[in-house]
Specification:
- There is one protein chain.
- This protein has 315 residues and is of the alpha+beta class.
- It contains 13 helices and four strands.
- The protein is 67% helix and 7% strand.
- A four-stranded mixed sheet has the order 1-3-4-2.
- Helix 2 packs parallel to helix 7 and helix 5 crosses helix 6.
Length: 315
């Protein structure tokens, strides 16, 4: 009876492991021997599987390390190139030209109202474009000026986004002081905690601010969480407004306090395809523009939920 039970179990074990069993063992010694061989084969297969998983894990770590090294090298090279290009542009442009254009832009931003919002594309955009050409640099200009960047892009391979690296390098080079450059550098650290669209919207807002001579804003992750929560609430509760029907979240100030921070302004939007589009949408709207280019802000956040966006500011 005992041998019969073990034999049936052994047949199943051998079928599972692929071990041949030409003649069913008739003694316990034979059963024990074959079982030992079967378990050894199982252990060997498990060891081989574990070794394969470990090898794949190690390969991923090595690839991540390689990418990180190339990213860091790319960022450093792009930043130095951007600084050189921007410094060269600033030498060619007089401070009077820059100040005059910034003053014109500021007047338009301060004066424009919903009834006269056509002034933004008709008057503000041309002024801003002139400033861009005078003191800013584009990713294409970086690649044209530094062939090594193109080689590093090939090392990174397809599918690796470098747009944000170019933008970070340009923002750093645009910063006029060490303190403001540190804000830009610190913002890069939060990229992994933001969606691509959230990061793009923050970077573009800061780029436009610095071109206009305003301070870059530091990312506040508590405000980011608050912004995401409001975007989610607008979808969940089917409303679109700064004042929320959710208890305890009525105003932006209430919501910020709930997340352990404070707010000095808020923009909302829905239906935009990505972070760049929503930023341009806010730029083209007088009230949102004044908020985004406000002089008193020190901190910024963008919270995305599907195609709903909440942008918050803090002092």
């Amino acid at each position: 009876m005992y041998i019969g039970k073990i034999s049936r179990w052994l047949i199943a074990l051998c079928l599972l492991t692929g071990l041949s069993l030409p003649t069913l063992a008739q003694s316990q010694d034979e059963v024990t021997l074959i079982a030992k061989l079967a378990f050894e084969q199982i252990a060997q297969r498990e060891a081989e599987a574990a070794a394969k998983v470990e090898a794949e894990h190690q390969a991923r770590l090595e690839e991540q390390s390689r990418l990180k090294t190339v990213y860091q090298s790319y960022l450093g090279s792009a930043r130095r190139t951007a600084q050189t290009l921007i410094a060269d542009k600033r030498r060619k442009a007089t401070q009077g030209q820059v100040d005059s254009l910034r003053s014109q832009a500021r007047v338009i931003i301060d004066e424009v109202q919903d009834a006269t919002k056509q002034r933004i594309p008709q008057e503000l955009d041309p002024v801003f474009e002139k400033l861009e050409k005078l003191i800013a640099v584009t990713p294409d200009e970086l690649l044209k000026a530094n062939a090594q960047l193109g080689k590093m892009r090939q090392q990174l391979g397809r599918g690796n986004d470098l747009g944000w690296v170019d933008q970070a390098a340009i923002l750093y080079a645009l910063a006029p002081t060490k303190q403001e450059a540190e804000i830009v550098a610190n913002n890069v650290k939060y990229r992994e905690d933001l969606s691509a669209d959230e990061s793009t919207a923050i970077d573009e807002a800061n780029r436009r601010r610095m071109i206009l001579g305003l301070n870059p804003l530091a990312i506040d992750m508590k405000l980011v969480a608050c912004s995401r929560d409001h975007s989610n609430d607008m979808i969940k509760h089917n409303f679109f407004a700064h004042n929320s029907p959710v208890e305890g979240k009525t105003t932006p100030w209430d919501r910020a306090k709930n997340f352990g921070t404070s707010a000095s302004g808020e923009n909302i939007a829905a239906g935009y395809r990505d972070g760049m589009a929503v930023t341009i949408g806010w730029w083209r709207s007088p009230g949102h523009l004044k908020n985004m280019m406000g002089k008193g802000h020190k901190r910024i956040a963008v919270g995305q939920e599907q195609k709903h966006y909440t942008q918050m500011f803090g002092r």
